[in-house]
Design a protein that fits this description.
Layout (H helix, E strand, L loop, with lengths): L28 E7 L7 E4 L12 E6 L6 E3 L5 E4 L10 E9 L4 E11 L6 E3 L3 E7 L8 E5 L2 E3 L9 E6 L12 E3 L5 E4 L13 E9 L7 E11 L13 E3 L10 E4 L17 E6 L10 E3 L5 E4 L12 E8 L5 E8 L1
Parallel strand pairs: 1-7, 9-16, 17-23
Antiparallel strand pairs: 2-5, 3-6, 4-5, 6-7, 8-11, 10-14, 12-15, 13-14, 15-16, 18-21, 19-22, 20-21, 22-23
GO molecular function: beta-catenin binding; cadherin binding; calcium ion binding
Subcellular location: Membrane
Keywords: Calcium, Membrane, Repeat
């Protein structure tokens, strides 16, 4: 008799996963935005890929579009972060090609990062220094426009909202009623408010102040330029002699041509502006001797007074008084007296 014995064995067969699937992204395009002044290492966006192969380890790399190395990606996480300086005015967006690889297969997606403009550029004037000339003591049609300044916002795509203001010579911030200059805060037009004196002792030939332009309606960044206002001289000052009277000694029995005294006048007008301060001297009231001859003469350029005759006699006339005139090129004059003994 035959006996059959049946034996059952269970064999576990493991099927190894083959790396036969490439990584894939859920989207073909990702978009993000970042401020142009954002800090280095700031994470902008994290983009991750998937892989149907269970054992795959995905690594990420930016392969195109990363101008200047502005961004970088963390290889293991797909986090894209700021790696270099950003400037909206230079580049408004970056179109990055992000590759995901499992060491055998790879795939890619596009990441567009938009750069957001921030107020990081102050207004810029069209020139560093503005200069103009006006006539001194001109009181017509005040306040009068003397020039206009113009600034533009360095942040090109921002709505321009620039406010102008002044500081410096002729500008009284504490009491504007004392100011000699003012500016239209919107247009940049600068006005002179009062007649200005150019000449000494209290005037000035040039006014120098600073114009500022502030963006964001006066709450942002500030740019500046210098303003020079030069005063054109007019003949508004007569010559004058600094002393009330001049006295000197006349040598008795001296020869003709002997120097007696130098009388010099002052004119506060500009000596470099025409003939306003160019002086000529003359004797308006002279003395004569017994022969009817003029006793004194004066050099019209230097004001040096000399004897015109000889042999003056003290016993005949112990004192001589003459009147000297200094006249400028514009016809204004000053007078004084010389007494010689």
């Amino acid at each position: 008799m035959s006996i059959f014995i049946s034996v059952t064995k269970y064999i576990r067969i493991g099927i190894g996963d083959k790396n036969d699937n490439p990584p894939y992204f859920d989207q073909s395009l990702y978009e993000a935005e970042v401020n142009e002044d954002e800090d280095i290492q700031h994470t902008v966006i994290t983009v991750t890929a998937k892989d149907k192969d269970e054992s795959s380890r995905i690594r990420y790399e930016i392969t195109q579009g990363n101008m200047g190395g502005a961004f970088a990606v963390k290889n293991e996480t797909g986090a894209i972060y700021v790696a270099g300086p950003l400037d909206y005015e230079s580049r408004k967006e970056y179109k990055l090609r992000l590759v995901a690889s499992d060491n055998l297969n790879e795939n890619h997606t596009t990441v567009v990062i938009h750069i957001k403009d921030v107020n990081d550029n102050p207004p810029i004037f069209d020139r560093p220094t503005y200069e103009t000339q006006i006539t001194e003591e001109d009181d017509r049609n005040l306040p009068k426009k003397v020039l206009q300044v113009t600034a533009t916002d360095g942040d090109r795509d921002r709505t321009p909202d620039i406010v102008y203001f002044l500081t410096g010579q002729g500008v009284d911030d504490q009491d504007p009623a004392n100011s000699k200059f003012a500016i239209n805060t919107t247009t940049g037009e600068i006005y002179v408010l009062k007649p200005l004196d150019r000449d000494l002792p209290h005037g000035r030939s040039q006014w120098r102040f600073t114009v500022f332009a502030e963006d964001e309606g006066g709450n942002g960044l500030v740019g500046y330029a210098d303003v020079l206002v030069n005063l054109k001289d007019i003949n508004d000052n007569a010559p004058f002699f600094p002393y009330a009277i001049y006295t000197g000694n006349v040598t008795e029995n001296g020869t003709a041509g002997m120097t007696v005294m130098t009388m010099t006048a002052t004119d506060y007008d500009d000596p470099n502006e025409g003939t306003n301060a160019r002086l000529k001297y003359s004797i308006e009231q002279n003395q004569v001797n017994e022969n009817g001859e003029l006793i004194f003469t004066i050099d019209e350029e230097t004001g040096v007074i000399s004897t015109a005759v000889c042999c003056l006699d003290r016993e005949t006339n112990p004192e001589y008084t003459i009147k000297v005139v200094a006249m400028d090129g514009g016809g204004l004059k000053g007078t004084n007296v010389f007494k010689g003994r």
